[in-house]
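To assess whether the prediction recovers the assembly geometry, we first specified each molecular entity separately, as shown.
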Amino acid sequence: AQTIHQWPVAEIKAVGSPLSLGCTIKGKSSPNLYWYWQATGGTLQQLFYSITVGQVESVVQLNLSASRPKDDQFILSTEKLLLSHSGFYLCAWSLVGGLNTLYFGAGTRLSVL
Amino acid sequence: GDSVTQTEGQVALSEEDFLTIHCNYSASGYPALFWYVQYPGEGPQFLFRASRDKEKGSSRGFEATYDKGTTSFHLRKASVQESDSAVYYCALGADNTNTGKLTFGDGTVLTVKP
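The predicted structure of the complete assembly is given in tokenized form:
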């Protein structure tokens, strides 16, 4: 069975500080990977997607970047956090191909103060 | 652009009540439609999907039927339990070019009282 693990579970960071969030997928070879963001009490918005190692596409510009250094790993980062970065960050995977179901991880709660 | 509208922002029911959460969509082409459920502090869990007109998706007693004529995918459950309390999201996927982009509705908070 596929498992998706996100780390850390929660972060409290200062404005202007760097950030790195991670996600690992086990049990599925070469999945598509995604980062979504959810404001507190809000809906979900796609940030990035990746269909292969080393290739990441940005969907919205939020002063964030993403990388896929390994087939099963997806990293979200920024060098300088903004207050608006607060929220819930969700990693997801799907099978390769169009319109496949997304399966989400447990998320990372980020508070920027 | 694509959009999903969930009519009810909040629904409060008692156990064994019948549940309906309305979902209407706007998209070009033939989107796939999804329902997800999110419990506090967790990521959304996939409930089920439907990909063609009149197709019914179902899981855990919840069901919805894809209706292209009314552009709807309403979620229903005959008898809710307290454990069903959560946020429910309707979503559509209209981009079949491997982007994984889902457009989510604003969510419906379901509270079930014992």
